[in-house]
Amino acid sequence: MMRASKVYRKEDILRMEKSGINSQWAKQGSSKYSIWKYKGGGDCMHLWYRRIYVQKGEKASSYDKVITTTKSRSEGFKPETNAQEVPVAPKNMNNRGFVTKQMN
Q1: Residue 36 per-residue DSSP state
Q2: What are the backbone dihedrals phi and psi of residue 24, each rounded to the nearest 5 degrees, phi first?
Q3: CA angle, 15 as apex, 11 and 21 as ends, to 5°?
Q4: How many CB atoms lie within 10 A of CB 90?
Q5: CA 38 to CA 49: how far, in whole Å?
Q6: Which stretches of 2-88 are assigned E, i.e. beta strand?
Q7: pTM for the complete prediction?
Q8: In the chain, where are the structural domains located?
Q9: Which one of 18, 32, 64, 76 has the minimum C-beta count within 10 Å?
Q10: Contact 33, 17 (CB under 8 A)
């Protein structure tokens, strides 16, 4: 995903999660793994950043403007609150982002 140099929408990330991407990181006995919360797995340094775009024309383009969450709220947009784990790199989470075992 990193090599693609793309911006991923939340909807796209959640869809990847449902399709079983990174399922090898899931808790034992489960095939479900939250890419949204745990990104690439234990000790991963990646995290998600929220980007809110204001579309300039009829279609999305590179001219669209990125605004802050505070600015979007002042303009009437109410973004939903994400889980606390979303903006945190797994290596900085409990158990360093490992969901399959306890780390010391």
Answers
A1: H
A2: -65, -15
A3: 135
A4: 24
A5: 13
A6: 52-54, 65-67
A7: 0.71
A8: 10-97
A9: 76
A10: yes
